[in-house]
Write a structure and sequence with these properties.
alpha/beta, 2 domains, 11 helices, about 45% helix, globular, disordered N terminus
Length: about 325
């Protein structure tokens, strides 16, 4: 099966409307169709179909392609040709990621898809202290399939998410996680969600959240890849309130499967976090810890809406 070219030009096609929200294809009905296919197709066919669908989507949605390439350019030192190539690969990789994710949500075991689990002892060391653990990850690789990996090792997990475009889709995905013993807390509309997270962490729970696309006005500007970037302040706020351990984790496609890695624990002075400047410094330190791996796997950093501040984004897309 031959996929469309992985090269996406930033300069030869007419300007396309900027894609600012979720794809119209990200809906409950289509997700159920994908789940049905995942239950019937063998793994190689699922991955091939996913890559083809991702590549076609990238070709048919030039506005989305342009956003992706502009998002990637700062990771590649402003090399627009490299960003165009990486954007093409990213759409194919995302299709394969969705195929694997749908197989997981349809009931397939995830353990066979992992080829490496690096530095797991860092998680065990943090857990041995009896404190809550906040797992932090960017939109990199296939972050969601790490949840059952923890549950299968006897670690109950609470996943923090934002609401999906449809309530039906939010419920569908929540139920899929629940079947694997993973709890979901949807934030955004619930003013008490933050309080619930603090309580869980104080009780020693393990909680997972994304850090590189904060909702609304909750982000703080930090340096990332040498440029201004809006990072989530929530990890620093939760560390201040709950005194939890902060661990960076990521899962990237590698060697025909996935490699999961745990970064060194982020240390902090809890009392100092009473100062907003200290919380901002911690947020920046968290993002910069992910910079090498995000640069190395730029074609697995899945952002389909603009993520750089407006002035910075214009420079990246020039």
């Amino acid at each position: 099966m031959v996929a469309p070219s992985d090269t996406i030009s930033l300069s030869t096609e007419p300007p396309a409307p900027v894609a600012a929200g979720p794809s119209a294809f990200y809906r409950a009905r289509l997700w159920r169709t994908g789940l049905a296919a995942a239950r019937t197709l063998p793994l190689p066919a699922s991955l091939a179909l996913g890559r083809l669908a991702g590549a076609l989507y990238g070709v048919l949605r030039p506005g989305r392609r342009r956003v992706v390439a502009e998002n990637l350019a700062p990771l590649l030192e402003g090399n627009h040709a490299a960003a165009a190539h990486a954007a093409g690969r990213l759409f194919r990789n995302f299709g394969a990621k969705l195929a694997d994710l749908m197989r997981f949500e349809a009931g397939a075991p995830v353990e066979p898809r992992f080829v490496a689990l690096n530095d797991w002892e860092r998680f065990e060391a943090a857990r041995a202290r009896g404190r809550g653990i906040l797992l932090l990850t960017p939109h990199l690789g296939n972050w969601e399939i790490g949840a059952p990996l923890l549950v299968n090792r006897g670690v109950p997990l609470l996943v923090i998410t934002q609401a999906e475009p449809e309530e039906d889709l939010t419920d569908l995905r929540r139920r899929a996680r629940a079947r694997f013993g993973v709890q979901t807390l949807v934030i955004g509309g619930d003013a008490f969600a933050f309080v619930e997270i603090i309580k869980r962490l104080q009780d020693g729970a393990t909680v997972a959240m994304l850090v590189d696309r904060p909702p609304g006005l909750s982000g703080v500007e930090v340096a990332f890849c040498g440029r201004p970037f809006l990072a989530s302040l929530a990890p620093a706020e939760l560390a201040r309130a709950a005194g939890c351990a902060l661990l960076g984790v990521y899962i990237v496609a590698r060697g025909g499967g996935y490699a999961a890695s745990v970064l060194p624990e982020f240390t902090y002075d809890r009392r100092a976090l009473g100062d907003r400047a200290a919380r901002r410094e911690l947020a920046g330190r968290i993002m910069r810890a992910f910079e090498p791996v995000v640069r190395a796997h730029a074609d697995q950093w899945y952002h389909f809406v603009p993520i750089w501040p407006a002035g910075n984004r214009q420079e990246a897309g020039a």
